[in-house]
Amino acid sequence: MQQSMADRLRARCRQLGFSTVQVGEMAGVNRTFVYDIMRGRSGNPNLEKLQRVAEVLKVERNWLLHGLGEVEGEKPIFDNPEQSFVAVPYVNARPSMGGGQMVEFEPDYGRPYHFQQSWIRHTLRSDPTHLRMMHVEGDSMMPTLHDRDIVLVDTSRRSPTPPGIFVLHDGMGLVAKRLEHIPNSDPPRVRIISDNAHYSPYEGMADEVNIIGRIRWFAREM
User: Fold this and answer.
1) Are 18 and 119 part of one and the same domain?
2) How many domains does the structure of the chain reveal?
3) What integer is the mean pLDDT of 32-50?
4) What whole-number distance in Å separates Cα of residue 63 and Cα of residue 178?
5) Are residues 116 and 173 both part of a single domain?
6) pLDDT value at residue 104
7) Backbone dihedral region of 67: left (phi > 0), alpha (psi from -120 to 50 degrees) or beta?
8) How far apart are alpha carbons 127 and 120 in whole angstroms?
9) How far apart, in whole angstroms, are the C-alpha atoms of residue 142 and residue 136?
10) Among 22, 39, 108, 152, which lies 20 to 30 A Cα-Cα from 141?
11) What CATH number is associated with residue 27?
């Protein structure tokens, strides 16, 4: 399929995560200049302005015009990019839902899981590079999480506000627990909660609780 200049500009902006406004501002051109190209309304744009846009997008101007020339890094995907899948690496870690366990938090790149890019971008509103997969162990988060459930952890989400379920080092080991900020605590403290009523909640200093990331999704083998 032959791509147009509009296709190439849209695909490169999408790949880099730039909006029309951002490209226009960084290139020092009116955003309508970029918008008109994207909408196919400008087949013969000002070359000086287009050169500045190309520099922002780290491509040669001729690539935008004709699809010829260099593109820094990987070339963007044109065929239904929102339907493409991205690999999320598996981490050889077992967050305990009990007393905690010290483990290494290193990706096992031989065991990736694949998710639709559009779901990660628009539903999770996350960057795939910040995501990790891991199994959890124990029963302290029952009935929400079961032993051996696999969870998707967003390592860019490390704030317990709003409350949620996180993977964290609590001072004793790596655990999966529900966290909430204790209002008006000075210095700031967090409450660490198990969904299983047989486990008592406990508190910790916010700067002593090492939050690895927020759990955004889980799956269970039946």
Assistant:
1) no
2) 2
3) 88
4) 49
5) yes
6) 45
7) left
8) 7
9) 11
10) 108
11) 1.10.260.40
pLDDT (tens digit per residue) in 151-180: 999 999 999 999 999 999 877 778 899 999
Residue with tokens 């317990």: 160
Local structure of residue 119 (DSSP, 8 states): I
DSSP 8-state class, residue 43:
S
Residues 187, 190, 196, CA angle at the centre, nearest 5°? 160
Percent of the chain with pLDDT over 70: 89
Q: Which residue has the tokens 């780290």?
A: 58
The residue ranking higher by pLDDT, 144 or 109, is 144
Distance CA 172, CA 192 (A): 13
C-beta separation of 72 from 54 below 8 A:
no
The answer on 215 and 129 residing in a single domain is yes
Q: What predicted TM-score, i.e. pTM, was given to this entire model? A: 0.60
24 falls within a domain: yes
Distance CA 110, CA 31 (A): 43
Q: What is the pLDDT of residue 103?
A: 42
Domain carrying residue 36: 5-66
Q: Using one digit for the tens of pLDDT, what is the confidence trace for 25-37?
A: 999 999 899 988 9
Contact 204, 170 (CB under 8 A): yes
